[in-house]
Design goal:
The chain is an alpha+beta fold. It contains 4 helices and 19 strands.
Length: about 280
């Protein structure tokens, strides 16, 4: 079965995008993992399938990690998919639905897109954590990092605030922290260095994906957790390896994320080769 695909990215956080709105596609976790493999597939941080829009939304976006597991949120992919649908519809505002809820997205000047990533959820059951505790301070430490804050942006996040981001062995401790016993669904792990009340450096270890050049939901969790700790205000630029995202945690609890989108290339896949 030959199907068209797009390779898109937001600040280097890259996606293989398939369109299943007009016909069903035999996408399984194993197929998604095979296509996501950078050695034998196309390669991506997340595998995205556009599905028919349910009532109240303009498209349904299904997200799979490179290991085939399903994710509830991906901020950079949300902007990418919104840009495609907005161009199709000739509109500047669209609603992208995921398994975590509806995400309104609007086009801004300068080829930027702003996504309302919904409310940050701060309860221990929301993250989720394995037992009741204060999500502002988790009793976790490993090597040079300790005392993360946690929240959910439709997917679980824990943010470690560090003095020197360059000194953190993210590739070594990221996979161990992702699978810590406190995270029954595993977690995305952020390592953040607050440079000023308006600027944060961030490197993410993404659940099921590893280190990525950018992570929209991770940037959302970082501004929320930084503001909760009193390290920043409710607005800040989050600087990721792939570039900056402009973040705002509104008073109503919703998190707004602004950044670019890009299409790297298009092509066709023979899905039978990735069975």
């Amino acid at each position: 079965m030959m199907v068209a695909f797009r390779k898109m990215h937001g600040l280097g956080n890259d996606f293989v995008v398939l369109d299943a709105r007009a016909r069903d596609l035999p996408v399984t976790p194993a197929l998604a993992a095979a296509v996501s493999d950078r050695h034998v597939g196309v390669g991506c941080d997340q595998f995205i399938v556009m599905e028919p829009p349910p009532p109240g939304a303009d498209v349904f976006m299904r997200i799979r990690n490179p290991d085939g597991s399903e994710a509830g949120a991906c901020g950079n992919a949300t902007r990418c998919i919104a840009s495609l649908v907005a161009d199709e519809l000739g509109r500047d505002r669209v609603v992208v639905r995921t398994i975590a809820g509806d995400l309104p997205v609007e086009r801004l000047p300068g080829d930027l897109w702003r996504a309302d990533m919904g409310p940050a959820r701060l309860g221990w059951r929301d993250v989720p954590l394995a037992r009741e505790m204060d999500t502002l301070h988790l009793p976790i430490s490993l090597g040079p990092v300790a005392d993360p804050a946690a929240c959910s942006m439709g997917n679980p996040h824990a943010t470690f605030f560090v003095q020197d981001l360059d000194a953190i062995p993210v590739a070594e401790i990221g996979p161990l922290l992702e699978r810590h016993a406190l995270f029954p669904d595993r977690a995305n792990i952020g390592f953040a260095q607050v440079l000023s009340p308006e600027r944060i450096r961030l490197v993410m270890w993404e659940r099921g994906a590893g280190i990525t050049l950018a992570c929209g939901s991770g940037a959302c969790a970082t501004i929320v957790n930084a503001a909760r700790r009193g390290l920043t205000g409710r607005r800040a630029t989050v600087e990721l390896p792939g570039g900056p995202l402009e973040m705002e945690w509104r008073d109503d609890g919703h998190v707004l994320m602004t950044g670019p989108v890009a299409t790297a290339f298009t092509g066709e896949l023979d899905l039978s080769r990735f069975g």
